Amino acid sequence: MSARRALPQARLHFGSGFASNTARSAARTATIRSAPRPSMLAVPAARRSLATSASSAAARQESMFTARNGLFLTAFTATMAGMTAYFLNLQRRKNLVMDALMFQIRTNPTLRAELGDNIDLAGWGWISGEINQMKGLVDIAFDVTGSTGKVATVEVKMQRFPHDPLKWQTVDYFVSTKDKSWNGYVDDDEGQLVLKGGL
């Protein structure tokens, strides 16, 4: 009888041990579940931060590249414009019409008395206006100076004779210094510059 009574007690003892093991397992599970887990939102946020930094750096590089291109384009345009103006002015200076005008000015007694000898273009020798031999039109202005140091501004408008392409008719010829001015014309027979005024 004692052996039979001990058996249920053993079973009860085994049952209590199983229950305690189950309780410990449940406690561990609860501990694992209650432990803080890393947020899944942290990774996308970090990726977004890196993407934003990369896009900002790319935008800065693009703006710097655009600024450099703008400066280069401005410098290139200014250089080309300057070179074009220089060559156009050089063509005007080497024109046969300009050679004839300078000869008339150098041999004019009034201007020789006013400007002195060695009369030539003043400064950089810039000639503004147009010399169009195809259309037979001249409309220019330029400064001349001589040994006296005085500067005279010459404004000339001429047109070519319709039936004689080698002759030019003076439409307007005006010469002025700081304190004097003359109206002039070119004598058709002698080809000399005739000035009137000087007041």
What is shown here, in short?
The chain folds into two domains: 56-94; 96-197, Nuclear Transport Factor 2, Chain: A, CATH 3.10.450. Helices cover 52% and strands 26% of the residues. It has helices at 2-34, 42-93, 96-106, 109-115; strands at 120-121, 128-132, 137-145, 151-161, 164-176, 181-186, 193-197.
- CATH fold name of the largest domain: Nuclear Transport Factor 2, Chain: A
Poorly predicted parts: 1-16
Strand content: 25-35%
Principal-axes shape call: elongated
Which structural class best describes the helix and strand composition? alpha+beta
Kindly state the number of beta strands.
7
Transmembrane segments: 70-88
GO biological process, one term: mitochondrial respiratory chain complex IV assembly
Pfam family, one: Coa1
InterPro entries: Coa1, Coa1_fungi
Q: Notable features of this structure?
A:
Coa1_fungi, 4 helices, elongated, 199 residues, 2 domains, disordered N terminus, Coa1, transmembrane helix, seven-stranded antiparallel beta sheet, 7 strands, alpha+beta, Nuclear Transport Factor 2, Chain: A
